[in-house]
């Protein structure tokens, strides 16, 4: 077992997509909590908060480049969709945007930054699941930290292990909700890292490949096509959608479809996508080497094209 991580550090010996280089500047960050900017050690919420009591909330992770949260509108769209489905009263989009930018300004952050924007239903009068015992407005927290993916993650890639934990049907726990309750993904993650892998590959209820516990999975066929799941059992990923857009722009054949582990094991290349690390190659799945076991030409090209799209989005925000 690994010990409790210190501020800004990473644990274990893996190169998972969420592992980051430690940065001592994170010890002194200011955190946005319901309109106040508080030192890290005083940034707390009530023990009666819906997020603490029940995991009742929605959230987004944002990368910051050139002083701007990348693809902010897409992230706020997803946050609003989740809140609407859960009947959580969000602050206005302008207020949420200001919370993010105010946090960045207070910390004098411009690049190499990751923001976690979290909104819970709010404080309850008693620790009970019924939303009607909520007695205040939504709780809003924005945490901005200096976080960069480990260099080896982007160049050398990660390993995956297919977990027995399946993605749920939408009538059980809709996988399209980016909700605070992530126990399904946590249990998958535990099984993967105890098996020696960096992340879990998760199947849908019918046994087809769905997604990973914290990223989206893609493969590249030996014929050069890019495949990802049909989307029914995964979060509506922002980076996932942007990679598919990049493929369309550059006439790289890409398909959202069902496929099995047999297709994965026979792939020429594989990669995962996520807000934090972008496009990350996959070396092995279940101990089986994918392609040559190294970053392939399609993945390397997509990494560059995705970074171009990030720069395009930042430039559009700077010009406003």
Q: Describe it for me?
A:
This protein is of the alpha+beta class and 320 residues long. Helix content is 30%, strand content 24%. The chain has 9 helices and 15 strands. The chain has helices at residues 50-54, 72-86, 93-107, 151-155, 170-173, 183-194, 238-249, 261-265, 297-318, and strands at residues 30-33, 36-39, 57-65, 68-69, 113-120, 139-146, 158-162, 199-203, 209-212, 216-220, 226-228, 254-256, 269-274, 278-285, 288-289. The strands form 2 sheets. Strands 7, 8, 9, 10, 11, 12, 13, 14 and 15 form a 9-stranded mixed beta sheet that branches. Helix 7 links the parallel strand 11 and strand 12.
Compile the SSE list and pairings:
Elements: E1 30-33, E2 36-39, H1 50-54, E3 57-65, E4 68-69, H2 72-86, H3 93-107, E5 113-120, E6 139-146, H4 151-155, E7 158-162, H5 170-173, H6 183-194, E8 199-203, E9 209-212, E10 216-220, E11 226-228, H7 238-249, E12 254-256, H8 261-265, E13 269-274, E14 278-285, E15 288-289, H9 297-318
Parallel strand pairs: 7-8, 7-14, 11-12
Antiparallel strand pairs: 1-2, 1-6, 3-4, 3-5, 5-6, 8-9, 10-11, 10-13, 13-14, 14-15
Helix pairs in contact: 7-9
Q: Tell me about the biggest sheet? A: 9 strands, mixed
Structural class: alpha+beta
State Rg.
19 Å
* DSSP helix fraction: 25-40%
Proportion of strand residues: 15-25%
Uncertain regions: pLDDT < 50 for 5+ in a row?
Answer: 1-13
Number of helices: 9
Number of strands: 15
Globally, the shape reads globular
State the distance separating the first and last CA atoms.
48 Å
**What is the residue-mean pLDDT, rounded to a whole number?**
93
- The ordered string of helix (H) and strand (E) elements is EEHEEHHEEHEHHEEEEHEHEEEH
């Amino acid at each position: 077992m690994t010990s409790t991580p210190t501020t800004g550090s990473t644990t274990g010996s893996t190169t998972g997509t969420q592992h980051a280089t430690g940065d001592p500047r994170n010890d002194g960050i200011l955190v946005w909590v319901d309109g106040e900017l508080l030192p890290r050690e005083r940034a707390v919420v009530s023990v009666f908060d819906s997020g603490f009591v029940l995991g009742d909330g929605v959230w987004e992770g944002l990368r910051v480049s050139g002083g701007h949260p990348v693809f902010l509108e897409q992230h706020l769209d997803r946050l609003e969709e989740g809140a609407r489905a859960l009947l959580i009263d969000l602050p206005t989009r302008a207020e949420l945007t200001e919370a993010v930018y105010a946090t960045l300004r207070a910390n004098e952050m411009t690049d190499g930054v990751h923001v976690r924007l979290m909104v819970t239903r709010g404080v309850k009068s008693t620790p009970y699941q019924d939303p009607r015992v909520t007695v205040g407005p939504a709780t809003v927290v924005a945490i901005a930290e200096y976080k960069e993916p480990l260099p080896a993650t982007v160049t050398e890639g990660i390993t995956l292990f297919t977990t027995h934990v399946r993605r749920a049907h939408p009538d059980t726990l809709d996988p399209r909700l980016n909700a605070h309750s992530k126990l399904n993904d946590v249990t998958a993650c535990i099984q993967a890292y105890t098996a020696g892998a960096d992340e879990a590959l998760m199947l849908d209820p019918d046994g087809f490949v769905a997604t990973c516990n914290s990223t989206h999975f893609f493969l590249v066929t030996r014929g050069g096509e890019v495949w990802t799941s049909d989307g029914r059992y995964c979060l509506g990923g922002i980076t996932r959608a942007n990679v598919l857009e990049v493929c369309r722009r550059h006439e790289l054949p890409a398909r959202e479809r069902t496929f099995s582990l047999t297709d994965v094991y026979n792939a020429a290349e594989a990669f995962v996508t996520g807000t934090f690390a972008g496009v990350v190659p996959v070396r092995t799945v279940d101990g089986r080497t994918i392609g040559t076991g190294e970053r392939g030409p399609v993945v390397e090209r997509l990494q560059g094209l995705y970074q171009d799209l990030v720069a395009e989005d930042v430039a559009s925000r700077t010009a406003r």
